[in-house]
Specification:
83% of the residues lie in helices and 0% in strands. It has a single domain (3-36, 73-273), classed as MFS general substrate transporter like domains (Growth Hormone, Chain: A). The relative contact order is 0.15. The protein is built from eleven helices and no strands. The chain is an all-alpha fold. Helix 1 packs antiparallel against helix 9 (173-200).
Length: 274
């Protein structure tokens, strides 16, 4: 599979994932509006999990009928971890963890954020999901063909803009949806771009291990950071949480800026030595 194909399919994969993340709270909100108990949301989640298990079972049957070396299970070792983390693939792995912190911190506490501004939290997930899906359908094919470092720099910057909007601009439903849409485009497409970088910049023979570390970093960020975020809200308030998330997003963006500067300087040195 070529690097361009990887980026394309990673965009489709992450788009499907974002659709699930965004639609889950909307279904829960709809169930609540229709008068169903809170447990209805858990029943819906269980049903979705069952459908997913059936799809994986069917996929396993198909793979066994047409075995492929590239479809073998990925195994990781400390040696492989050391090789990946000592390569350029470490940067997208760090970035996806930081991006997961940003998204996990914002999405997990939208009920508190929306209540503090007398808004409906479902507007966040409506705007985020709509932007994430439409951006993949309309511009993902264009983005993955561009310079991945420049693209990730621009998209990481959009993430930071969205957080600043949540902190200083949102005061009604329209601005709330707009901020969520900016986050959906920035975060959603950044994930696709850096997922491709994690695969393409991994040392030879460690692509699958690099992607495992990429996924691990994402889950640590998106599920681990809310634990810290909850304590920040309780002890210091929502404003402090937003400032913390801005700092994380800034660090994420500076990684791409630093890589672009390093590449530019290295190119100048190469030309001088030629």
């Amino acid at each position: 599979m070529t690097p361009a194909q990887r980026a394309k399919y990673f965009a489709l994969l992450s788009g499907s994932m974002m659709t699930g993340i965004g639609s889950g709270p909307l279904l829960g909100r709809a169930a609540s509006a229709l008068g169903y108990p809170v447990t209805a949301a858990f029943y819906l989640a269980a049903l979705a999990s069952l459908i997913g298990a059936l799809l994986f079972w069917r996929l396993d049957v198909q793979l066994k009928k047409t075995p492929s070396a590239s479809a073998s299970a990925a195994r990781i070792s400390w040696r492989a971890v050391a090789r990946v983390l000592s390569s350029r693939a470490v940067f997208p792995i760090i970035m996806v963890g930081l991006g997961g912190c940003v998204f996990g911190g914002l999405s997990s506490f939208q009920t508190s954020y929306a209540a503090s501004r007398s808004l409906d939290y479902s507007l966040f997930f409506f705007g985020f999901m709509g932007a994430a899906i439409s951006s993949r359908m309309l511009i993902a094919g264009f983005v993955v063909k561009r310079d991945p470092l420049r693209a990730s720099c621009l998209l990481s910057g959009l993430m930071m803009v969205s957080i600043l909007m949540f902190g200083f601009v949102v005061d009604d439903g329209f601005s709330y949806v707009l901020a969520a849409m900016v986050l959906g485009v920035g975060y959603g497409l950044t994930y696709s771009v850096i997922n491709g970088l994690a695969a393409n910049e991994a040392p030879s023979g460690t692509t699958s291990q690099s992607l495992l570390l990429f996924s691990l970093s994402y889950f640590v960020g998106v599920f681990g950071f809310p634990l810290l975020a909850g304590r920040i809200i309780v002890e210091h308030g929502m404003v402090t949480l937003l400032l913390t998330v801005v700092a994380v997003a800034l660090l994420n963006w500076l990684i791409t800026v630093g890589r672009l500067i390093w590449r530019h300087v290295s190119g100048i040195k190469t030309l001088q030595q030629a």
